[in-house]
Amino acid sequence: xxVNSRIASRVRLVISTLANVTGAITIELxxxxxxxxxxxxxxxxxxxxxxxxxxxxxxxxxxxSSRCC
Length: 69
Fold this sequence. Notes:
Helix content: over 70%
Order of helices and strands: HHH
Low-confidence stretches: none
Distance between the termini: 53 Å
Number of strands: 0
Oligomer: single chain
Shape: elongated
Largest sheet: none
């Protein structure tokens, strides 16, 4: 019974840690999406076109701005 308890405890810890990491990744991705480009539009682009679109959108977003995001 002691082994099952330790396994259950570790599983709960892993689930909690995974939830925290997933949440942190989601927050960071939202912060990084300052280009405000629709994800479906980006998904349909080739990598080179995607980079160009994001760079252009970020340039437009930061134009005439006294501070960054």
